# Entry
Amino acid sequence: MIEAKVLSRRFTYNGVKLPDPDPKMTPEEVKTIYSHQYPELATAAITGPESTGETLQYSFVRAIGTKG
# Structure
C-alpha cells in the first residue's frame, strides 16, 4: 500500500525563514506576497523545491546584476 503525504513548504530569502502563507498558492504567488515586505524579491529567482524529509524547501535568490 502506498501512503501519500502532503509535504509542508518552507521559503527562505537571504537566510530568513518565511512561513508559507497558503499551501494552495504557487511559489510565484508567494514571492509576490513577500515582495511587498522585501521589494528586491520582485526580480528574485525561485530555486527548489529541495526535499528535506517532510518539507519542501524553496529559496528566493536575488538577481545579481550591474547597475548603470
